[in-house]
Every structure is written in structure tokens, then in C-alpha cells.
Amino acid sequence: MMTDSISQNPSREDYQIRFFFLFVLLIPVWWIIGLNWLIFQLFTFFLLIDFVQRQKRSPIPIKLPVQFIFLVLFIVLYGVSILVNIRNIPPSRILASFNNLSFWMMGFILLFVLDRTFRWEGIKKIILSVHILGFFSSLFCIFGLVLWLFTNKFYQFESVLAGFLPKSFLEMLYSRAHILYSSLVHTVVGRDRLFDAYVPRVVGFHVYATAFAMASVIFMTMTLIYFLLNKKQKWILIVLVLECIAFVFSFSRTAILGIILAGSVVCFLAYHNRKWMRVAVIVCLIAALLFIVVVSPSKMIETASGFRKGSTFWRARLYSITVEQALKKPILGWGFKPKTEEFQMPIGSHSTYLGVFYRTGCVGFFVFCLFWYYVVKRWWELRKTFILNKGTTYVWIITGTALITGLLWMLTDDLDAPPLTAFLYFILIGIIFGLQKLKNQADSLAQIQTDLNP
């Protein structure tokens, strides 16, 4: 297997991984300063500049894997859609559109650079960095829950950067660019109405609770893998419990149900030939049938919709209008997400898939789906090799559960809106791509299996 000179330079890769490790650990600092809305794009831009400088000294040409080609093509189509519709886009939404586009560019750069520098030791350091970030994030959430328990209030504070901005400007951001406002004015613990009662909702170092929920899935993923690598360090399980508590108090229906569904499906795929799995499936089917008989489907739907009644109603209305408007420009879409008086969020929000369809039309949506098809395909291709070993089987299950949970989460949330969540999800995909490459290298695969089965 041919590799470029960059990936054959361990000292250079060690420098990059150390820099990556430090950047991830400093994410709470960027959050306190108020730079999370921009810092991730700047970081990946630096990675790109560094890569280009090194590539000039490499005689081996750049070759894009097929999944990267589809991501690049989607980025191009998205950009073309913005330019085609730019005369109809309000000035305030032009900046928002290019900001959304920058998330996918960030994802591509991150995946591309990591793909050409990954070794197993580098992957382990990145797993450790995200695990540590998850620990501090969960501690912060537990702190917020304790505050709520004793005061029954939600708390916010201004970032360092917000302290230098005029109050009138922050008020304008609150009404016109709420995600940017949430990146500058932080929530320690929020609140929401569930079944007509106020409950605390944790946000962590994120802009809103559902974004934190998806990030928590990745935190738990990295913590579990780190535990597999360090089974004697039982305290890691305490961190996992803290992360689970914080995850539950995000009250994200899609993330919570998604991780249960994804985990069940992936475990079945891993162990479908085992007798106990067949028995478990039969028991679950019988239990589900009995539940449906005892509790009518209409009652279940009513209960689910009443979980967050206001959210359920306006999301359904938002999705209906998004599809209705998207069909008016079905080829390349509208290029941007317009704001209306009816909704706090722009049309095309709260669903990555519907948002992509609205902004880039059928063409962009098809290419977008092809990219994710190849991501899932790369994960699935790990199965034949990883399923032969107990430790690597667990890694295949854990990463697959997080990947599929993210795909389900995107049904009701935007990946190109919360910066930290997008950054972490692309790291997860990058690790899957890295493992896909390493499984074809005998020495690397042997080291992975040894580390996961000490």
C-alpha cells in the first residue's frame, strides 16, 4: 500500500498530534473567551496551511479517496447554490450561509489532513484528548445541575469577548443570530418544559442542549475506547457514569432514542450468529408486541408528542414549510435559510437533511447522501477484520453506534450550526477512516489488537 512521505515522518506527525491534543484540551478556554464560533474553522485552516507547506516538499501527488470527492463536490454545489441565488439573499443571511458552508469545509480539511497523517499512536492520543474534554464537560454539567437543585434557577454569564461588546449589539445578536449570541453568552444550566413542568437542561460547552447531546455520544464513545485501552484504570467508569448523567439531562429525544436504536442494531450486526442474540431478539419482539397491546399506539404517540409539546408542534410546522418551499427550487435549492416572523429559527433549520435539500436541491442532497453512504461503508468494511478479535469488535460496535446515532440525530438537528459538535463528529469519522487504513497494515493491526486485549 502506497503512503506519502508526510505519513512516513513520525516526528512531524507527533508535532501535529501534540498540537491537536493541546487544541482539544483548550476548548473550555476558547469557550470562556467566546471564540467557539470561529476557533474551529481557524484551527482547521491552520492545519491546511501546514499541510500545503509540507506537501510542496513531497514528490507524491495528492489522491482523494472517493468519499472525500463527494464531500468536495457537495461543498462546490453548496457554494454554487449560494452564488446563483445571491441576489435574492438578504445581506444578513449571506454571512450566515457562508458560515454554514465553512462547517463542511472544516470537516473536509479535518478529515483530509488526519487521513494523511494518522498512525495508531496518534489515534490513541486524540481519543485521550476527547475523553478528557468529556470529563470536564460532564463535571461542568453536574455543577449546573447542583446549582439548579439548590436554587431552581437557570444561569448564564458573558464570555470575555462579550464583555467588550456593546449591549445593543448583543441584543441584536439575540434576535437575529441566536447561535452566535449563545457562543458569546453562555448557559451554565438552562430550563425547559417537559410534560408541562420545568426541568433543568444542560448545555456544556455548547450553544444548545441537543448539540451537547450529540457531543456527549462522542464523549462516551471515546471514554469507552479509552477504557478498553486501559482496563485496569477502573476510575474511567466513573467518568462514563458522569457523562451518561449529563447526556440524559440534555433531554434530547432524538439522541437518547437514537443511541438506543443504533446500539441495538449494531450489536445485532456484530453478534447475529450467536444463539443468545437470537433469543434476545425474540424476547424483545414479544415484549414490544405486548407493550403495543397494553398501551395503544395512539397513546404512545400522544405521550411522545407531549414530552415537549411546544417543540413538537413548531418542528412539524417548520419541516412542512421547508419541504413545501424546497420543492419550488428542486434542482440547486435556495442557497440559504431565510428567517420568517413565524419561527425563531430560519426555514430549513433543525434537520440537516431537510436543510441540505432546501439549500442545495436534489443535486446537492444526492451528493450529500453519497458522502455519508461511503462513510458508513468504510465503517462496515472494518467488520470483517475487527470482528475476529474481542477488543476490536467492541471498538467496531462503539464507533458504529456513535456514527449511526449521529446520522439519526441529524434528522432533527443541524450539523452545520453547533461548531464543537460538528468538530467532534468529524473527528469520529476521521478515526473510522484512520482505522480503515490501518487494518490493511499488518504491523498496525497487530498493535491495535494487542493494545485492546492486554
In short:
This protein has 454 residues and is mainly alpha-helical. The protein contains 19 helices and three strands.
Give the helix proportion (percent range): over 70%
Structural class: mainly alpha
Helix count equals: 19
Q: Describe the biggest sheet?
A: 3 strands, antiparallel
Strand content: under 5%
Succession of helices and strands: HHHHHHEHHEEHHHHHHHHHHH
Mean pLDDT across all amino acids? 87
Q: How many structurally independent domains?
A: 1
C-alpha termini separation: 28 Å
Low-confidence stretches: 1-8
What do these coordinates show?
There is one protein chain. This protein has 454 residues and is mainly alpha-helical. It has one domain (10-54, 66-452). The chain has 19 helices and three strands. The protein has helices at 10-25, 27-33, 39-55, 66-84, 91-115, 120-151, 167-176, 178-184, 209-229, 235-248, 253-271, 275-294, 297-305, 309-326, 352-381, 383-386, 390-409, 419-438, 442-452; strands at 155-158, 185-194, 197-201. Strands 1-2-3 form a three-stranded antiparallel beta sheet. Helix 3 crosses helix 5 (91-115), helix 6 packs across helix 10 and helix 17 (390-409) runs antiparallel to helix 18 (419-438). It is globular. Mean pLDDT is 87; it is low at 1-8.
